[in-house]
């Protein structure tokens, strides 16, 4: 663990201008690193993670990796705002990405387009989040890992996007301990939809 990097993760990240978070029925925001509709024309589950090292990011990622194996007709994309080296180290610690596509967005341009900015103290260290962090460790063996880069104040969020590039489900994370409900996202994408 690098103490100076851990300390730096508690500083607020630089300001970025935010778009409004997409709602159900909106076109999914595109970025050069994350284009919708996707090239493979598959429905997609998108998770913008808090930071590499966060136990709730890890729980979300592991749920996505399992689901990606079970649902090969759906793409799973995880966005990391930690830098490339830190993201790769984190993935190696988790035994690889599996079938999840991992996009590194250290500049946080994707986060900004999806309306995800800096959060408050209450979001990060609420009593409920601290209790749930302890429960996650005790029940699933997922504990805090070293934070090599990224900010603890960056919010996360989760969305399900259909093959035509429309948002069908999702929301910005309400608190740090808000983990992707991957079953709900998949169920939404497998349900027949009216054309928007």
Radius of gyration, taken over Cα atoms and rounded to an integer in Å: 16 Å
- In N-to-C order, the SSE pattern is HEHEHEHHHEEH
Helix content range of the residues, please?
Answer: 25-40%
First-last Cα distance: 49 Å
Which class in CATH terms?
Answer: Alpha Beta
- Give the overall silhouette: globular
- CATH architect. name: 3-Layer(aba) Sandwich
Name the average pLDDT: 86
Report the uncertain regions. none
Q: Which structural class is indicated by helix and strand composition? A: alpha/beta
What is the count of structural domains? 1
CATH superfamily: Glutaredoxin
Sheet with the most strands, sense and barrel status = 5 strands, mixed
Q: Fill in the CATH topology.
A: Glutaredoxin
Could you describe the 3D structure shown?
The protein is built from 7 helices and 5 strands, in the order H-E-H-E-H-E-H-H-H-E-E-H. The chain is 33% helix and 13% strand. Helix 3 (84-93) links the parallel strand 2 (75-80) and strand 3 (101-104). It has one domain: 3-Layer(aba) Sandwich (Glutaredoxin), CATH 3.40.30. The radius of gyration is 16 Å and the shape is globular. The protein has 196 residues and is of the alpha/beta class.
Topology:
Elements: H1 3-8, E1 44-48, H2 55-70, E2 75-80, H3 84-93, E3 101-104, H4 109-113, H5 121-125, H6 127-140, E4 157-161, E5 167-172, H7 182-190
Parallel strand pairs: 1-2, 2-3
Antiparallel strand pairs: 1-4, 4-5
Observed structural traits:
single chain; 196 residues; alpha/beta; Glutaredoxin; 5-stranded mixed sheet; globular
